[in-house]
Every structure is written in structure tokens, then in C-alpha cells.
Amino acid sequence: MNHYRRTEREKMVASQLENRGICEPRVLEAFKRVPRHEFVPDHLRGRAYADGPLPLGEGQAISQPYMVAIMTQSAELTPGERILEVGTGSGYQSAILAEMGMEVYTIERKAALSKRAELRLQRLKYPGVRTKVADGTLGWKEEAPFDVILVTAGAPELPVPLLDQLVLGGRLVIPLEEGLSQALYVVTRRRDGFRKHRGERCTFVPLIGEHGWEKDPRS
Ligand code: SAH
Predict the structure, then answer these.
(1) pLDDT for 156-199, tens place per residue?
(2) Measured between alpha carbons, how far is 103 from 80 in angstroms, rounded to an integer?
(3) What is the DSSP string of 142-160?
(4) Which of 169, 149, 167, 168 is nearest to 211 (CA)?
(5) Does the Cβ of 89 fall within 6 Å of ligand 1?
(6) Phi first, then psi: what are they for 192, rounded to 5°?
(7) Is 63 a catalytic residue?
(8) Whether the CB of 205 sits within 6 Å of ligand 1
């Protein structure tokens, strides 16, 4: 069974990631190792390696593998860096980061999702990932600053507390609303301010909080 899943993962990496330009070897290796089927609801396991997002329950979704990969690659990670993820969801993105040797802190606003992700990460031997239930648009003050902050939900604008919690040279990777769709931005903190780079279009569930949407714009 495990061997079978490994083959599925290798296919996913070749056809969905390498084919579309993901080339960072440590990112590709992490995707081959992390058992994505453990992060999706039982009845969707057969689709765990398919080329799309999957529902997680509570109106939320585990992102498409390619989207997780492009965010991870855009962050230009070095092992040992401290990363804050906003939007734990299933815990899959956290596991990818932990597999790459990062020090991972992850915040989720929905307690039930956070608890499930925490237990799953422990069971799958990623016990180093620190989880918390809170509004992630405020960051994680006690643990700041971070080398990288990854926001895995779509924001109406850049959350100021997250910019404040970046080290010099730190990167914030975040989907920002642009009219009816979103685009992925990488914001780098420099001595003379912040440099903003626009990446590709994307679709994430909304970031809801004090520095995000007031309520779910979909409802
Ligand atoms: N990274 C996840 C996918 C996340 S989906 C994975 O790998 O599975 C986005 C998640 O962000 C949802 O679970 C949603 O509840 C959460 N979220 C939305 N706004 C948030 C906020 N302000 N703080 C923390 N989590 C938030």
C-alpha cells in the first residue's frame, strides 16, 4: 500500500509540479515523502493525488498540490528558518515545510481543524510543528520575528502585523484579492521598505480576521 502511494506521489510530482516549472529539489523531495492521502477526509483518499483542491469540511479546502508547491518555492527557503503559516487547514503545507527542515509555527482560526491537524502531524512524525488557534492576521507575537510568513487564505490587503513580524530579508507569501480573482504576492522586507512582487493567479478560501475579511464574503 505504502509503495503504491509512493508511486502515486512520484507521478504527481512529475506531471503536476516538474511539468509546470517547480524545480527546487528540496521542494520536490518533500512532496514525494509527505503522505498527502493522510491529510484528506477518508472518503476522498482516492483523489488525494489528483490535480486540484479538495474539501476539508467546515467550508475549507486543502490546496491543489501545485499551489502548495509554488508557495513553498516562492518563499526561497533555507533549512532551519522560522516560518509562520496562517491557515493550518489540514496541516499538509506544515508537513511539507517540516519535511524540508523548517521550524514551523501554524495558526488556524477554526479550533476543530487545528485539533485534527495537530493530532495528524503528531501521528505522522512531525511533532515539531507548533499549532495555535487564533486570528492569524495578527501574527504570533510571542514567537516573532519570522524569516518567512505563508498565508494560505486570500486577503483583501496586506495584514500590517504580518509585515511587522518579518525579519530584515524576510518574505511574506500571500494571495491578494484582485477584483474577482486573486494573485500570489511575495513581499520582501528590506532596509528601505517592502518590495512587492506579483506572481500568478490563484484561488484560496478567504482570510477572515481583524486584518482580513470581516466575514466570509462567500456567504
Ligand atoms: N494550508 C492548508 C490549507 C488552508 S485552507 C493546508 O495545507 O491544508 C485556509 C485555512 O485558513 C482554512 O482552514 C481557514 O479556516 C483558515 N483561516 C482563514 N482565516 C484565518 C485567520 N485569520 N487565521 C487563521 N486561519 C485562518
Answers:
(1) 999 999 999 999 999 999 999 998 899 999 999 999 999 999 99
(2) 6
(3) GG--EEEEEE-SBBSS--H
(4) 149
(5) yes
(6) -95, 15
(7) yes
(8) yes
